[in-house]
Amino acid sequence: MYRPVRVPSTSRFLNPCVVCFIVVTVVVILAVTVALLVHFLSFDQKSYFYHSNFQIRNVNYSNQLTSPATQEYKILCGKIESVITESFRKSNLRNQFIRAYVARLRQEGSDVIADIVMKFRFTRSYRGATLKNRIEPILRQAVNNFGNLEVNPSPDLTSITVQDAANIFTSECGAGPDLMTLSEERIIGGTKAEEGDWPWQVSLQRNNMHVCGGSLIGSTWILTAAHCFRSSSNPRQWIVAFGLSTISPTMRIRVRRIVVHGNYDPSTRENDIALMQLERRVSFTRNIHTVCLPVATQNILPGSTAYVTGWGSQEYGGNTVTELEQVRVRILSNNVCNAPTSYNGAILPGMLCAGLPSGGADACQGDSGGPLVQEDSRRLWFVVGIVSWGFQCGLPDRPGVYTRVTTYRDWINQQTGI
Length: 418
Ligand code: ARG
Description:
Elements: H1 16-43, E1 45-56, H2 71-89, E2 97-108, E3 111-123, H3 128-144, E4 157-160, H4 162-170, H5 177-180, E5 201-206, E6 209-218, E7 221-224, E8 239-242, E9 251-260, E10 274-278, E11 305-310, E12 325-332, H6 334-337, E13 351-355, E14 371-375, E15 381-389, E16 400-404, H7 409-416
Antiparallel strand pairs: 1-3, 1-4, 2-3, 5-6, 5-8, 6-7, 7-10, 8-9, 9-10, 11-12, 11-14, 12-13, 13-16, 14-15, 15-16
Helix pairs in contact: 2-3
């Protein structure tokens, strides 16, 4: 019977294919291991946050330093930040240093304490203690470079979590989500806002229905428009809702008192400003905290960028929306806004116009009372306008008209102490 002859394999162990396979496998495993090692040792960087406070002896804590809106505050913080930054830029940590920021100025006796948050990027393999030992001498050296600022010679330095850093920022006004983590400037695109983008924005509601927007300016105070209360100024009929969504807010607070400007004039819309005092204090979080108020003398520059946010309708006559929206606009001078082809003289000194020359970007019905905000050079957000009125929405030469917050800065202070 026929049997196929078995071809004996030349050598089971030296089959070139097998050898090739083994070699390739070993090389691949080695390469992957080396790549992973290199990655984790040098490229896998992690952010580290440090907190320090500088006690400044020869600067008196005056009224000028109580608000981040004042020139004095900005200059002092700017000076501290630039000296620290320079020290690190010149040091051997220049590639690891990201940013130093004065998150808060506070008073201790007659001294000023500056709370400083610093961000570094190190590879993961670094040890915390080593980091601290490398940062400390550079910080101490910075202190010697302050010149006319008398600072305690050895400032303390503590490693903090990103959450601790955020907590320091949320206790002060105007911090956006990018500032809280000392991150790159945020690109605000599209129209839908994300959680924590505009942490001061509130929805003023009656019978669970959104009526107007507002801004949190203190732990118990909301800034809004007077015309929101034409239907009712009874605090018991109102509720303040926090969070992105008007239908499922993250928090609701009752209203104790409504203060409408005594000279609000519905026919001219002059003095369209009001305040709401809340029943209880708001405890600030990453996603709920205050916006800064500008000083009365602050110049709001025509041509500068601003953002308006709210749940207002997307077209004139449309319905309000349930998720918070944002839009970028530009400030216009009152002169341009009063041109015969525009509002023809209806813009009073206590008003402020913002929009785009071709239209298309504007607040609309339901946005009233909400904030028009601008970011300053230290990346803090200020409420410069309150959504007040406009001819329809988004038309060319018919920009949005806002209550000019600087005009009413003293009035706000008289009513709230803020
Ligand atoms: N008065 C409107 C309101 O009650 C706000 C109108 C704003 N209009 C505008 N085109 N910017 O919601």
